[in-house]
Write a sequence for this structure.
């Protein structure tokens, strides 16, 4: 599995939700609404989810194993860090979406 594109949209409001990302896998499949969240132990990703009838949130799409989850998290967080690094240069332009170079998963 190769992650061929990552797009990160930084959140404008200050909260634990820092950004929302989309990844493209093998130029064939896209997963939207991957959240970049600030937790007690640092940044992590939360896969897209939906609130079930019982009030619990359930992932809509998620990796099957921890190695794949770690790989996706590393790629998404790297793209988020690049968006943050570009921020001072973009003060004149209010765009908040940036495209990270494709990386192999």
């Amino acid at each position: 599995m190769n992650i061929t594109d990552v797009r990160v949209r930084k959140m404008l409001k200050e909260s634990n939700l820092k950004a929302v990302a989309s990844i493209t896998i093998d130029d064939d499949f896209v997963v939207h609404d991957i959240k970049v969240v600030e937790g007690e132990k640092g940044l992590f990703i939360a896969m897209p989810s939906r609130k079930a009838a019982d009030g619990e949130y359930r992932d809509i799409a998620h990796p099957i194993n921890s190695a794949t989850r770690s790989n996706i998290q590393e790629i998404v967080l790297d793209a988020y860090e690049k968006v943050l690094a570009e921020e001072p240069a973009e003060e004149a332009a209010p765009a908040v979406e940036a495209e990270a170079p494709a990386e192999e998963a």
Q: What stands out?
A: The helical segments are 66-86. The chain has one helix and seven strands. The chain has a mean pLDDT of 88. The two ends are 6 Å apart (CA to CA).
